[in-house]
Design brief:
The protein is of the alpha+beta class. The protein has 22 helices and 22 strands. The radius of gyration is 28 Å and the shape is globular.
Amino acid sequence: MTESDILKALDIGEGSDWEFKSAKGGLPGSMWETYSGMTNTDGGTIVLGIEKDGTVRGLEDVPKMQKSFGDTINNRGKVNINLLTDEMVQVVPFDKTSVLVVRVPRATRRQRPVFVGQNPLVGTYRRNYEGDYHCTEDEVGRMLADRSEEPADSQLVPGFGLNDLDKQSLDQYRQRFSARDPEHPWLAERPRGLLEKLGGWRKDRMTGVEGLTLAGLLMFGKDEAIRSPEAVPLYHVDYREKYSDDPEIRWTDRITINGTWVANLFQFYQRTIQRLTADLKIPFQLEPDLFRKDDTPVHAAIREALVNAIIHADYRGQGGIVVEKYRDRIELSNPGTLLVSFDQLLQGGISECRNKSLQTMFLMIGGGERAGSGIDKIWQGWKSQHWRCPGIRETLQPDRFRLFLPMVSLLPEDSVERLRKQFGRQVDRLSRLELQALVTAETEGSVSNARLREMCGEHPTEITRLLQGLSNRRFLEQAGQKRGAYYQLPGVPAQVNSGLLHTERNSSHKADSSRRLEDLSEEELATLRSIAAPALHGRRLPLDESQTIILGLCDGQYLTAVELGELMGRHPNGLRNRFLTPMVEAGLLLRRYPDEPNRPDQAYTRKK
């Protein structure tokens, strides 16, 4: 970690993965809530010695702060576990002072919950865009359940037996198993014996009690038995096909629990996979035994996506498994959070499954991977068609995992042509990644840091700079703030984006007649450049000197943060967060659009 890394983060501002604390009076008490929140979410970085507004105070006594931090994080009465190595706590020189940087990792499922104090029910936190929030008892309970060595679906379901299973489902499963591997020794077992091999029936060696497991009931059970209060009362599966553009038609086909079929997981999988792959084109290929191969990488990817939603679901969670098919995409969601980090998921090779018996059951009929390569199979299937990269979202309250599978070209020519009509030939001078960002916004309604990161693998900070650069050049308009920001093409109304409802930005303000930078003459521009010269020649200036320069530049005209950044050689977001907003609040500057402080084209003038 370097001073440059911290300055880049300051330009973007605090979010779910960065937190700045002044530590003026010593180690802040809120430090441990943030530590808990980051470990229980997706990790992050805490910087001690910098105010929330970006002012660098530094630390008065760095060795004392380090000792205080080390003593506290190893105090089990304060936090239950120390996940940090020595390399994760670093003193970074910053101008004439130093700050303390703590890089907090995401806790593994066996380490969560990480909590403050001695009671996880009252001391567990998570992060969202507003900061650290206190977890509910239900959220803590799910973390505790996920850390168990015993998979969730291997638990016995007391009071349930073979009579609660659908015989036809078990027979059909055996047929599919036999078709895939006709010589497998498990096929010689009777129904109960086959269930035992698959993990659907087991005996507790400690108590001697035996019976149906949750996996056996979910996979082969009668749906009224599955949804009984003693089993999985929140169980729900739903397939929705939405092919019509008529808003009055909610779906053109639907499979849900309605009493017309046995709604266990095996039957849901059979019905859903047929519909998801029904209209895929199948090339004519022959296997070595000269039988036709009716499968493609896309078929395998869709199978993997559906099985993943089923075997990774937390069946105590809300909303159930929902699969939606549109003309141009497939969306799958299931209750539960990721058991590995986002980066580990994309890298593959790590297999962490919430329901291992269900995983075994699908593996035996050709669905699912156990080696952590399932995501790779999905990505490769989509890449084989040159389709847009799949998208992943993890949401909290309620905990849900969503997978988006767009079935459209990476750079569809019709989309590029529409962008040319809107922006002219400037589009052809954009880099490939910039064009990808615009196409994503045009085809999906918006683009965000996370979405573009899935497509290119670039560092989040670089992606944010790219998106803000497009916004500054009027190719995109920003909505939301800091790391919760997303971007849309100019003039696009607000929408429901990635599960978050964004309100439409009010654009009814009429600009006044005050001058802008483009209205100034060459002589006036030369004057402004001379005022800004000390900022261009100096690496960092004292706060009052920077404010004086800004007041001089904004005296008599409105300037945007972008224009001020060009004149002063500073990043516009850093100027806005560290100077412009505080100067407005102090009554030194006026906003051009006072009722819309977060407008991307907001401009500032000196208050007379």
